[in-house]
Design brief:
The structure is a single chain. The protein is mostly helical. The chain is built from 1 helix and no strands. 94% of the residues lie in helices and 0% in strands. The longest helix has 102 residues, at 5-106. The protein is rod-shaped.
Length: 108
Amino acid sequence: MWMTDVQLYFAIGLPVFAFLLNIALGVIQTNSIQARITSVETGVNSRFASIDARFSSLEANTNARFTSLESNMNARFTSLETRFDTLTDKVVDIDNRLTRVEERLLHP
């Protein structure tokens, strides 16, 4: 059994061609998958950027609310302190008057 030149070329060339074609298709498929991954990554990054912006906005709003609440509470405590001081002064004044009345009653 003799092999012709064409048969030899097919016997050697066809597996080599199939191997090279397999490598080329693998590279094309890898590039396609990489492009899809990049696309998904870009979408996820934009979503996280949006979430970060929302949290930053929420944080700024919350900080402003707490600052306002703190100012309001400070004003209320200052008002309470003023009222308490006024009441304390009145009690001291009443105590002084009572002491004078007791002195007058004890030493006529």
